[in-house]
Hints:
The structure holds 3 protein chains of 3 kinds.
Chain A: H1 13-48, H2 64-73, H3 85-102, E1 119-122, E2 125-128, H4 137-158, H5 162-193, H6 198-204, H7 213-216, H8 220-232, H9 244-247, H10 257-282, H11 295-320, H12 326-357, H13 361-390, H14 401-405
Antiparallel strand pairs in A: 1-2
Helix pairs in contact in A: 1-10, 1-11, 2-10, 3-4, 3-10, 4-5, 5-8, 5-12, 8-10, 8-12, 10-11, 12-13
Chain B: H1 2-24, H2 28-48, H3 52-77, H4 92-114, H5 127-134, H6 136-143, H7 148-169
Helix pairs in contact in B: 1-2, 2-3, 5-6
Chain C: H1 3-32, H2 62-85, H3 87-114
Helix pairs in contact in C: 2-3
Amino acid sequence: MTGDPLFADGFDWVVLAILVAKAVIGFTIVVVGVIFMIWFERKVVADMQNRIGPNRAGRWGLGQTLADGIKLIFKEDLKPDRADKPVFRLAPYLSVVPAFLTFTIVPIGGVFTGGNDGGVELFGRRTWMQVADPPVGVLFLLAMSSIAVYGIMLAGWSSGSKYPLLGSVRATAQMVSYEAALGLSVVAVVLLSGSLSTHDIVAAQAGSIFDWNVIATAAVPFVVFCVAATAELNRPPFDLVEAEQELVGGFHTEYSSIRFGMFYLAEFMNTITMSAIIVTLFLGGPAGPVLFGPPLIWGTLWFTLKLLVFLFIFVWLRATLPRYRYDQLMDLGWKRLIPLSLGWLLVIGAISIGRDAGWNRPLTLVGAFSLGVISWAALIGAMRVAKLRRGGDEFGELSTATERVG
Amino acid sequence: MIAQNIAFAILALVATLAALRVVTTRNVVHAALYLVVVLASVGALYVLLAAEFVAAVQILIYIGAIVVLFLFGIMLTRATIGVESDLDNDQRWIAAITGLFLLGVLTFVLVESFGDDQLPGLAGVSREELTAQRGTGAVGDAIFSTYLVPFEVISVLLLAALVGAIVLARRD
Amino acid sequence: MAEFLRAYLTVAVFAGAAGLLVALLSTLGWAVRPSRPSRQKSIAYESGVDPAGTDFGQSQVRYYIFALLFVLFDVEAVYIFPWALRLEGYGVFGLVEMGVFIVILALGLVYAWRKGVLRWV
């Protein structure tokens, strides 16, 4: 595990300039990306609902986000008189800053095949195409998403109003629940790559498409991660946090003016960074075939393409799926995703050890799988027996709410 | 080394001031937030020592889970906004004496066990060496060799904590 | 400054820039927006009627259980990450040890499940 070659030798003005340049570039990408994403979401959802969507501000309504932002800046800022003012002002910062920081660990390009380490030449120095590469990359991601909880929690509490408080309590419970699933599903990736750094994880997937973690981990952690990420982002179908019919606007009901704009910005920023993280962890990041010309451009191109696919999927989900109920949400998180990712982790561990020890591969697979099935069946059986013995539905935990209703 | 010392001074100052605010502020939620500042500064101090894994754990567990649990408990029960009058009680002098005593004991223990020992500096050490010595993998190696039994005991401890909490919080 | 810390310097610069963006936008808003406060505007929103009762509504404690369970699984994840990094070195021994660890903690989840605290009705 090596670090960014930029920092390997001394620290001079050139290095500092590159560092600042990288920060500026990353910053610009995120901000421009957000402006694009808000327009994209509105346009695509409009298309799916047979509407036209924004079409006044600029060509194809491209300037809509900017127009909205400028409008929000000129709006009066209201604070409820019972609000906790300092915390009320602090909350937008806690939402936006982690959203930005998560993007630092995403490699947005670089060549990793043929003995290359993904570095590019800049002012005669080699550096990597990501803002920073902390050796604990994946844990950094989890740490940032746990700080993002504070923004929403404090925004709701400090408003001194009931709807925001309810919204933020819901949001916090939801976000911490799915953060557990998120963390446990990444472990499979770490296990295969043997590193926590996002650069190394991308480098480990550089070979063929079969090295991509989505295939190497047999898709289960990928699915768990995507579902957990959607819930972590509070995006539909998991947007109970701001369920309009129940909570008006959820945690940001009392926010107005540009302060509200911050939360709006952070939400879309998180969507972009989370898609980028999914691409990095599971889909090889910039990996892809070089068709013609310089390979460097193709890396960034493939990365952008994969990113766009995920952004589209997030919008698609929003336009298609109805919102989950809270009990369904918690059931999915705690009773499905967490046990699934824990069990799958052991299976992956067994397979990877078996491969090193030269065990018979199909046999390992079948053995691990049947062990999993047996323990799952034993668990279900034990609970059924307990339920029968108690009589009645008191422990009828296995039937989901829908089954009970239906 | 100078940059590190300056960073240490700033972080230590922030942590101390925030810690003072934890006990002097008159709102429980603000106290919890100042506690977050203290914990985050300590996390940053771990980064300065190149103990990144510990720093990440500090943020993940203490800030991301435990203080969230505190705040959650406060928000669900008595999260009144504004000054609360019944936070202080009249044992503050006893508390101050106990605090000073604890400070004395900790200082004594630290000086006694480490004395003039110095941590190896980070300057000139490559990232590979640092990761090998103090990285996440090194922590794993320690857990799965020297501290194997404590590691398994922790799982039982966590289980006991969970069962206890559920027994306390259940409706019936 | 050591090589190791420079990567974090970048993170700090980035965090500073992000905070600055929020501060700039807020200041800009403060500078240009109108301010015509009135009694009505500063009342908390409750669907158009005057707010009832105090400023906060007590919620159910069952939310708390999930935060509690999260602490448990967060601690578990923290032990799993170093294990996953070095699993190849530990071999079968590591797998069995972690299996025991996970099963013991999964018992906690099963207990919560069976006691009905995960049920949300």
